[in-house]
Queue: 4 jobs
Job 1
Amino acid sequence: MDKSPFSYKGLLIGTLLSLAIGLLAPYGIVFNYYWIGFNPSSPGALFFFFVLTFVVNTIVGLLNRRFELAKADLVLIYCMLLMAVTVPTWGLVFFLIGTLVYPFYYGTPENNYAELFYDFIPAWMVPQDFQAIKDYYEGLPQGAAIPWAVWVEPMGWWLSLMIAMRFMLICMSAILHRQWSVHERLTYPMVQLPQNMIEKSDDARIAPFFKNKFMWLGFLVPFTLLTLNALNHYWPIVPQYSPNGRFSLFDNTLHLPIALNLAWVGFFYLVNLEITFSIWFFYVLSKIQEGVFNIIGIASTEKLSAYEYSQPADLTHQATGAVIVLVVFGLWGARGHLKEVAQKIWDPQGGVDDSEELLRYRTAFWGFFASLLYTAAWLWRSGVPIVVLPVLLIVSLIFFILVARVVAAGGVATARSPIVPAYFIISGLGTSILGAKGLVALNFTFIWQGESRTSPMVAASNSLKVAEMIPGSKTRLFWGLMLALVLSLCAAVFMTLKLAYTYGAVNLSLINWAGAHGWPYIGPTILNMPEANMRGWLFKGIGAAVEGFLLWAQQRWFWWPFHPIGFAIAVGWLTSQIWFSALIAWICKGIIVRYGGVGLFQNLKPFFLGLILGEVVVSGIWGIIYPLTAEKGRWLTNM
């Protein structure tokens, strides 16, 4: 067996930091000290890594170079941090616990949750002690102990599903990595900052990136502006930086939100101009389409889930059709690579060399297949009808691939699927095929499918790109990713339960709110039992046709300015938060490239990386100061 380039020292440090993220992330969010785990830009991971590379490793190197972390260990630690931040809060754990207990505490005679839900929830999936659920929301009486025992069985089942699913997505990332990185040569803009923080010669004390004046100039911009906001939290006389607003259109019947995030401007500077142009262009176009539909009175009245509240159903279905075509087209383009993967399954010694992949292709395939089977069996046992199970799994995998490709490979700051798979089924197939039991089971899938923006497949894809810096076997990196995932997940469950039982979840807004994404919507669905929405299929077809044309035009005409990714993610609340930053980055980069060429673009890249790092560091520093000086803080960035 080849010697691993990743040492046990790096693995140990990554393990401790992953455990710290799992414990600290829920605590920081409920008191508004800092936000970790909301977007794939991963500011929490970047802050820990900045402290490690710029502060700790530099000091250790000055004292004794022998104890300095090597490049391979820094890569390992960063990849583990990326994986650790995907689960502790909004990405999984808050939704996991909140969804399990919400209908029991908030059930009333008016909403009739008891009659609608209780008979269809398997006992092994949720805590069986109502007093323990009540204490979770209201806090324990003085001196009472946390009832850990009531959580052992349900949490054991749920954690087994979450780990299996995340292993499945890591395997899928290992299979697709070479296609995206080598064959398609996608750019992975989000890895450029950690790569610059790592890269240095053997005799250098510090990475050249940290000596770049343009980087520190960019760093100071968000650091200064967001420090004003932090100071305003203590002294309201200090002026605030608030670059948010909105445009009103169609006689104030439609609003176009404006939200400028300097870190996202930095990320978008690294992205292809066609992508940034298409993001803001198609978002504005979709809002115009929405306004026109409202004015002429043809807007859909279909009600979907909380995740689709920011746009009408027609646009949701249109984007869904586009997403399916984008992903299927990408997989069709990867058929040559997938054929090579298939050959390795039957002939491990022949064909393409997979010795430096995260997992051997044969291992990745069987790991994917086994975890997919376990996931299917688990979901069937939970009540998902076997007839819709293949649809649920296929659509979910399509959406996971979408987010990974758009965010990790395309460099989009944040994204998620236009519709959650549960409502793809409810709207597309109708409820008669599901029944009340199937609808309740689908509601539990919100736990793992709702916030797909923090998908572990994004973290794995970015990790594999960073790991290309290190030749050799990646087996220890795989185990590092799995260790980071499991430790962060378990630590976050422990801390979330401890916080809720100590302070009462009703007093911790995000923990309290997390369970409300599904149950209030699935109740009326059970009462009404709507049939399949044919209008939705029409707009899926329209979206698929437009996306197909965009893909065809991109392949045929080199001058074609519209990128298919822009149309696929044109709708949704997340796009409303990033489109204006994409517009600003597109203008800046366009001017720089037009008048300064590639040379000026490269020279100014550290400035835009500094915008990202400055926002990360200022939030991290104030996240340390807040707990020492204030009962509650003020979050400084939503990156």
Job 2
Amino acid sequence: MKKEMKLVRRKENWKRVMALTLSAVMMFGLMGCGDNGEAKESENKQSSEESGSEKKEESSTGEESKESSSEQESAGGTEANANSVGWAYDLGDQEWTGEEATLSLMSFFSPDPSSSTSWWEDEIRKYTGVTFQRESSQNGNFANMLTSGELTDIVGFEEAHEVVAAAEAGKLINLDDYKEQLPNIYQNPLLDSALRFWRENRCGGLDGLYVAPTGVGNNDSTTEIPMIRYDVWKKIGSPQPANMDEYFQMLKDMNEANPTAMGVQATGTDDGKPCYAIVGWDDNNAFAMNWLPYYGWFNLSRTVVAKGDGSQVLSIFDDSLPTKQMLKNLNDLWRNGYVHPDSSDMDYATAKPIFDNGHGLMIGVEWMGGKYNDIHTDETGNMTVWADDFDIYINADAAVGNKQCIGISSDCENLDAALRFLNWYYSPTAYNLVKNGPEGYLWEYTDDGKQTFTADGIEKYRTNREEIGSGGDLFNAQQFLNAQPYSTFVLNPTTGQPLYHEYWDAFYETEQRWGQLEWRRTTGFTRTVDMARANGAKTKSMAFSLIPTVDPDLEQTVGALQTAWKTYSWKMAKAEDDDAFEKLWNECKEECDALGQEDVLNWYTEKFEEAQKLAEQYPLKTSWD
């Protein structure tokens, strides 16, 4: 009877918790990309020793194995001088010869499964014997799955509170009970801090670990940086702005010199479509908020920010911040026709082709500028220019990963197969396939066992639309779960090279894009992170990734503040004159104060301080000294 009552309470708790948190899932899923996008400007590298690939016998007995006490090194460097590392217990390169199985999968952060991933699913089947039935997380399906408690066999979670609710309801297996079947997770020194952190802080105080963390590893990249049309910047004389006001004047001058832009086909002719200094979209005042990181301030919520080094937490209305100055400059551009007139009404999907076609002269974050660069090989491209007073930071190492994670349902009928897939997914072979595709597509081995590009590999990388094998492209594989186990800077233990082709020496050596080459010639640097270091850049605190989900009693307040800021910031951007702007700024501040801005500021100040202390307990294991 007691057991039955306990199960009933678990189910009731599941529904109660999910009812309270589903609104947060939807709200925070729309809040900024932050550091969860992977930057493309680093080749921080490690080398490695090949480790054994002895296959572990799979069983679902639940017996724990003794954790490996052998310590292996994982240190950063370059391909030439990287330290030795042996993080991979099982390389994952042995084909599966046993019985095949079918599992279901849904991930909050994965797109609709209708896109073809045939080649990637063929590889999964080849190495694990698993075929997946993917279920769409769109149209509320993921939220409905959480509410019902009927999880797919493999689940990709977006937020820790989802994990807690599922684990407390008995809907997830305790991975600690299956250590022997998961050597790439439990005997992997790279994951040491991440496993401890998630077990101790993200599983609701339960005894055990119920999900595998993702995105773990070292980072060697800058935080958000602006990208501008480098050819147009050169055209107006390559001015070096001293501050924000001069930067905005530079954007005006660029737009005057380039009122229309070249199209996607790169024919070398002007397509006649108008070009704008700034292009935004309606999710938030994306352009204005992107400026805060240029000055070393990063979002905790839409209306609360913290200094990158963790020294201060402030309201965005604080007079010491450049928030108001940014909006006033944006308003000046809007009134004079330098901002795309549909910016406040377009969604990101509509705005993206404008960037890709080169019709936006400034792009707020680095990852958005790459498509235009990849399409064009003539003398054009998006590259970064910094004002003298910018305070660009270097991203923190992801010692505990990011907020996304992967779990296995306790209702899974073929647990052996699910564990086999999860262990393989954390292997070098799987990660190499996800990021680089199969041998012969982008890359091939050299005589000394290194990976290098095939004759047409660079071209395939840029277009990324040539089908692989039985169907689908490289991007489709990355979107399958849309969460990889490691950062892109982790090294392949068999080659000593970064596991991602963008950080191979061969990538830099074979660079052909005009923008990249011209930027190198102009600045004297190969990577933006090198320029940041030369400018004395600090490293962003890992505490930003350790802030918990906002308390339920503040959820509505945070949501209301987000809506108020979004609404008013666009109104300020489009204000008719300076007096109208000042009136809107004051109204926005007053409304946010009335909604509870101070309560939210105090909560984040307290939680950020706790997160800083927590970060000290979970360092990334980069050596065994």
Job 3
Amino acid sequence: MSKGMFKKCGLLFCALVFVTPLIWAEETINLSTKTGQFSIDPATLAISVLPVNGQTEINLTQGEHRFDAVKELESSRKDAQWHYPHLKIQVKVAVDEQGLKFLFISDKAQSFQWPMAGLTSQAKALILPDGEGLYIPNHDPFWLKEFNKYPKPLSLSMPFWAIEYPHNYVSYILADKDENTDAQVQQRQGQLYLLNTHHFLSKMHLPYEVFIHLTGNSPISPAVDYRNLLIEQNKFVSLKQKILENANVNKLLGAFHIWVWGDGKSLAMLDKLDKLGIKHALINYNANPVQNGFNVDKDYVHMAESMGYLIGPYDNFDNALNPKKSDNITLGWPKYLWPEACIRDVNGSILTGYANRGCYLSSEALRLRESKKKNIANHIEAMLAKGDNSLFLDYDAAYPLYEDYSKQHPMTSVQDLNNRLERMRYISSTKKLVLGSETGLAWSAGVIAYNNGAFLTFSQAFWPIFQEDKKQFRLGWPIKALRALFKPYNAPDEFIHANYNPRYRLPLYEVVFHDSVISTDRSELSELKILATRQVKALLQNLYNIPPIWVLDKKTLDKIQNYFSEYYNFFSPLHQMAGLEALTQFEWLTDDRLVQRTQFGNRVMLTANFSNKLYEEIAAHCIQAEWKEDGSKTSFCPKR
């Protein structure tokens, strides 16, 4: 069907399905949606759209070469399908509310690169849910340098990315559990763009699904669109729903997140928090016993819970040590699991565990034994013998996912994902614990109540310094290593610029999940770790209405008590009132993007001034909360 034929055909004729034998695709498929008129070249998968508002046509994907001959093409105004004979890929595309949905099906093991987007003069910026979210102008010198230095695929917290075009943000969305697609920022002639590479695997005949949506003219529109898609698919679980299932989840509202060490595990620490007026807190701790030191015992747990706090130990199901050499109760699994339950690589060798200790533990090996051996259930019972009402389960809601080549318990990455979901659901729904985990990737949001790590952006710049500066961060769990959490860190300017520069940050994760999962930064990057970022972090976290994360002993709390209380007195009342609301609006109020505003439901508006000068009535480096109901205002000016 040529372009000329399409223009000349009548309404009745155009409604018919066209079938052609073999095309080298000089033709164009035209599909009409509520957002615009899409044109698709089936041989190159180049796509353009004329938006319904009559704006300029946008080139959405760049087709630089023909993928294959186009065979068995069928098309109507609302859908089309065809076949790539040499690639053995069946392609289907259909319209939806916001644009197009593509489905690629193949049983041939191969890598398939598409879509490529953002490599046109119309493209202005990349929108990346890398952690909380990034806004990256596509000619920015700093980011050109960063992506050249860190060329690996992105670690996306949610399965989409977007391109800013004139008057429109266009989103490219993957299936929720697609672990076979890599998204990568590339560059050509000083311009950043994005490319997906999907891996069709012989052992998993899973389709490759891509939505292309015109989402609106706000930088958070792609996140709003993804949230709406989750709701439409009944995949969104709100905090209100989680509270109905477990009333203790409500205790997260207004709570500071505190990891305690040393004399932070003493009753005197709880007395101190009480004297400071801290009514809402989540206390996490390392349950490994300390000889001749402070340990969280039943009295500590009981007192914390009587104060209205959540309290729970650190745990993980990701690693195992030889029981004869284990120095950590979280890694002490029954001896019949070692080394039988270790993950094996493609060569049959044991996959060495975190910090080069023990092994990574196969979630499939645990699942297969659970009905008879109850390893996970017994492990949890032992960890919670003191009566805790919460648990922090490391790794499970984070990357990487594993493949296991063991003959006894083979496992794909998708199976690993589903196994993790199953055991997290057991903890949160069956055991009724307020569950937190690392990072909080989108697929885990329905089963956890909080995460440590979603606030961090561009983790590619974090992991190298985490590995290289071993004296500054804890690697492994010997108690002496954990003291590193208290050491202030003079972070490189590059890391600070990539992670905490407000010009480049967007609250994408909060737009989707603010009223579903409570987010924080990583515990390794607590409020006192990098003094140079303390002020900007406090502004960003309050702007996004998420809690700070503290690593404290009583001695440290005594030193910072005034700032600690000042921060709490601003944040806690706000979060108690807005923590169950969606983040509905975000805008830059100045051209330099240093004054930003968020709104949560119809309750509160927050305006942060990251600049060095007064903005209206808001002082430099201050944030103002304005209640929509009565117009009352409060301010907070965090200290450097």
Job 4
Amino acid sequence: MALPGFKATAVDGSGNTLGATSVEVRLQSDNSLATLYSDKDATTPIANPFNAAANGDFEFYTASGAYSVSLGAGASPQIFPIDIVNADTMPKNPYDFGAIGDGVSDDTTSLQATIDYVSSLGGGTISSQSGVFLCKNVEMKSNVLLTDLRLKSAVASSSGEFCIGFSSSVSGASLDRVFIDGNKLSQTQDMDAISLNGVRNSVRNCEIFDTSGTGVSIVAGAEQCDVTDNKIHDADGNGVRHEYHASNISSHCSLSGNIIEDTGEVAITLISGSVSTPSAGVSHFRISGNVVRRTGLNGTAGGIGGYSPNNRHVLFEGNVIEDANNHGIHAGGDYITINGNTFKDTTNSSVFVRNWPNNSGTSVCSHVSVSGNTIDTAETDTNGEGIIVENCHHFSISGNEVSNTVNAGIAVLGETLGASFRSMHGAVTGNSITAVSAGGTTSNESGILVENSDGITITGNAVDASEDANINIRGCTDTVITANTCANSVSSHGILIIDGTGTTETSEIVCTGNICIDNNSFGIQVSDSPERTIISDNICRGNGSGQMNVTGVGSGSLVNGNIGRRTRNAGTASVADGGIISHFMGVTPTSYTVTPTVANRIVAVSAVTSSNMTIQLSDASGTPIAVAETVSWTTSAEVT
């Protein structure tokens, strides 16, 4: 009967590898040295003690029993107990079950037999340092590890086939350091390399290439599975894809640390379904630390897509996305976080948050955070926003750095699906936006564009050198614009407040404490008579057409305290009866006072214009004062 074996890597108490260290094996029953062999058939004895390999690996075969293994020579070796039972714990080899391993002969049956045998022992490792095993539709089993194997996909006879797969009943199985050649030049069907389902299964440190379908396909219903630190390239389909299902939900899965390059379709996608039957979505997914380059080689396809309206608690974090042939990340659903990603040269929006499909009742995203991302795109596509949030409630866009877009650096849009789908209750805070260039959609080349939305706060942003207005507010209500810096608009204003194309006119805007300098047109431009609007305490200087043009505010509005545009002013003047005081407001004051400094004088304003006031000055008896006297005055513009 074949001997059982043992394989391990020698490490110290801190986990450091002990290369070439001494290994000694003794029976626990009498502390005698065990008889060891290099093969299960006991044909080649090995010394005891012996030295581990340079990388710390060691292995041996011996009779079943309880042993103590000592690592390291000298007075204080590390000693740990092991039990070797008749079940063979050594890695099994497909050659033991008749595999040819030449990459030409079909080894499906041999590889499946190897997996089935190891599974019958309760699990274990399958490994081979040599050979390429041609196979398809191989089924993994629970607690089986495939490592250091080279596989090649056999030619698929129908769609839906794969090289190796995990069914829904499999748990605790892994592929680690497995190379899979998808053999796409020989394929006539779309064939995936790996089909991943079940519970606590993993694909790690693998290289997957030349697939006619997808690298790793996650089947709806998978739980606690991970796809980690793999390299996937030259797939005609997706790099990693979560399959569509109308009712099964996958949850608590991680797609992390993968390098995915040169895919025909989206590099990582959570399939969304159709308008009539949207995907059931995913829950608690983490997509982090992946590097995605050159996607959509077969047409228009982006970097990462996860936009089913039924997705919940999805994190996109720390990914690097370059040369995506559509959106960098397209996300949808509720409780979505897009944090700390880097985007370079996407041909559409780098971050696009909107549900798809847009079926009625599920088309508003909610509780979305887009923060700390770096976006730099020099592409010339006419849809290239940096960040776009569309039809979304309860969102935050904060701390992002956006440069070189051809449409808005940040866009918050509503009503794209109808009047009931307005974006609401959001904050655009502390972002840096530079160089929104010409070539995009007319009026959308703004640093920050907010359109057809309600209850949005725009604060603490730095916006520089937009082709259109640096901050552009259209068709919005209950919007606060405060403490932003808007400079160097190429052909428009620092801040523009205007009606939009939606169903609601702009109203109830607070624009306060902003700094608008060196813009081509006005520092602040208000048009279309927005009602109940406050324009106050802003600083405007060096703007080409003038500092502020706010005569278009509507009823119930207040304009005061601005610097550059004298909407509140005060001073002294020396005037006689009929004299003129210049107030430098540039707008006709709605409130003013003139106070004499000489006792027993009566003063009144007989006329007021956008530039001056005409004064009536008399003594207590009503006699006009012909000699100029000093008066003090104040003016403010409160439009009612």
